[in-house]
Every structure is written in structure tokens, then in C-alpha cells.
Amino acid sequence: MTYDFAYFQKSADYVREKIGFTPEIAIILGTGLGPLADEIEDPITIPYGDIPNFLISTAESHAGKLIAGSLSGKKIVCMSGRFHYYEGYDFEQLTAPIRLFKLLGVEKTILTNAAGAVNVEYSPGHVVILKDHINLMGVSPTRGKNVEEFGPRFFDASDIYTKSLRKIALDCAKDTELIVHEGVYMFFCGPQFETAAEIRAARLLGADCVGMSTVTEALTAAHCSMPLLGISLMTNMATGVREEKLCNGEVGETARSVEVPFKNYVKDIIAHL
Ligand code: HPA
Fold it and tell me: Which residue segments constitute the domains of the chain, with CATH numbers given?
């Protein structure tokens, strides 16, 4: 398969025609933020399966539809359901969402996710505004033939999580009951949760939280100079921080317990972007 510019254009042409406006903000909803999709006004919903050259979400907790409309007074496009490497996609395929946003004219993207807390000062239910990430998985979504129309072969990765957007998110934290930190996210491919030794290593390397998403999208955003905000919900303490075994049920449970304040916090950020 050749992932050239025309390949991505085909998806964007279809979506542009369906939604009929230029969205200013894009948001990818991670575990726990799904209900935000229900608050989009005048929604136009497109199942991923209808979009040419797009991917289909296989993760159970991810809905698999693109929703365009208004939220917090802004024109937005929202991905309810995301694509993860552990689902079996090539890294190159995982560039599709951000490249679609770019071609639709999106100016800022918000990535949200559920993550495990590595920093022992954090607790489940806390939120982390990402200031940087660590990717030692030896992979990049932009490997392979460079698509020059999106960006150069070698690109800067020093401000992937845009400083000015982080400041807005941290300022909005004053008006939420949630506890909000700024921290570093470390990417693991999954789908297994990390081992206790991996988490100890992550902490030594400077990670505050770990997860199985976001970094592929963030690197694609950096490549095409897309301003980006990353927001992680700590759904659990990472492996080895406490005695009990980690299960996906716990991830969903914590997410549901802070669903309303988390949703309101993200809506407030969107209003201020
Ligand atoms: N590790 C990786 N991904 C996750 C975790 C975790 O502990 N919690 C939620 N997503």
C-alpha cells in the first residue's frame, strides 16, 4: 500500500463534502470522554467505515464515528473512537486521523486518553496535561516514504505539545474540581499492561504516566505543524505502584467516576482555545 498524498486526500474530500464547513478544532476522545460526543450541537455523524481510505476502530470501548458540529461555541470535528497500534495497524496507517484533520483545515487538535499513573504523587482520577512524551518503541508513524505535502523528512519534536495551548489548559484548571498536573507521557505498544520493571524504568527515565495511544497521533501532528494539546486521565496507578493486579474494568470505572467534571473541563478548554 502506498500512503501518498492522494491516499489521504481521498478521505478528506469525502468528509469535507459531508460536513460542509471548516472545523477549527479537532478532538480525539479517549476512554472516559466518549459522552462528550453527545453534547455536540447540530451533529453530522459519519461512521469510519464510510470514509474511503480510513480505518475501523476495533477497541470495544471506542465507538468508531466521526462527528462534526459545534461545541463550546467552536466548530469542531471529533473522533469518537481511535486507532491503536495494538489493533494491528501499521504505524503508517495511524497517521490517517491527523492528516484528515490537517486537510480539513483544522487549526488545533486535542488528544485525550486514559493512562496509568507512574508518578506516585498522582492518584486515579487526576488529569495530566502532557508537556512531552517518551517513545522508545523504536517506531514512528512517519517512517517510510516521506509525504512532503505534509512536512519535511526530518522535523522538530521540541514543542509537540504546544506551549501556548498547555497554558490555556492549565489556566482552565483553576475552574475545575479535578486535580490537574503537567507531565510526561510514555508510550508502550500494548495491549498488555506494562510490567512492574518497565514502570520502574519509565519512572527513572522521567515518565509521569504511561499509555498505548496518543504518541503516534502526536508525532503525525508535529510532522504537519499542527498545534496540539494532550490530556491524559489517570485511570489507575501503573503496575507495581500498588499490590493489586491491573484490569481494564478499573480503567473504565475510574473514567466513569470523573466523567462529568472531566467532560466539563475539556469543554471549558475548547471555549478558551
Ligand atoms: N498502562 C497503559 N495504558 C493504560 C493504562 C496503563 O496503566 N491505564 C490506562 N491505559
Answer: 5-272 (3.40.50.1580)
